[in-house]
Design goal:
- The chain is mostly beta strands and 142 residues long.
- It has a single domain, classed as Elongation Factor Tu (Ef-tu), domain 3 (Beta Barrel), CATH 2.40.30.
- Strands 1, 2, 3, 6, 7, 8, 9 and 10 form an eight-stranded antiparallel β-sheet that branches. The chain has a two-stranded antiparallel sheet with strand order 4-5.
Length: 142
């Protein structure tokens, strides 16, 4: 059975901003900061695992340098840096090709992106830090 994937059916939002203007290649990534469990092996081979309650993580979004969304994200990040206001928003990723869902109720711009220019138009990489992130990476069912 043939499955289809359409990158235009992936949506990313941060607070009031519907993020668009994604770069080619990988344009969004989400991951937790730490492993869910830590394994401890005793001297006689007994294994114990410790549950890690840290659910923090990061979302990386890569946009074309020409995307006007860069201006909006930068505005919120600047106000947050200068005043500590307006920079913590919910973040959501939905892949309507199947069932990938990522959500964080509190996400903020980790730091301003690296500034670079070249012969051709480039990309701008935004990294959002998340207090707690839920990642449901289920497959493409369509």
């Amino acid at each position: 059975m043939i499955k289809n994937y359409d990158p235009s059916r992936v949506s990313v939002s941060w607070g009031p901003i519907n993020i668009t203007g994604f770069a080619e290649g990988t344009f969004v990534e989400a991951e937790r900061d730490e492993d869910g469990f830590t394994k401890y092996v005793g001297s006689q081979g007994e294994v114990c695992r410790t549950r890690n309650l840290n659910k923090s993580g990061k979302v990386t979004v890569t946009l074309m340098a020409t995307s006007p969304i860069n201006d909006l994200i930068d505005l919120y990040a600047s106000v947050d840096e200068d005043l500590g206001l307006g920079g913590v928003w919910p973040l959501r990723i939905n892949d309507f090709n199947g069932y990938l869902r990522v959500s964080a109720t509190e996400a903020w711009v980790m730091k301003k992106p690296k500034a670079e220019r070249a012969k051709e138009a480039g990309t701008v990489v935004w990294v959002f830090d998340c207090a707690a992130i839920r990642i449901e990476p289920r497959g493409n069912i369509l």
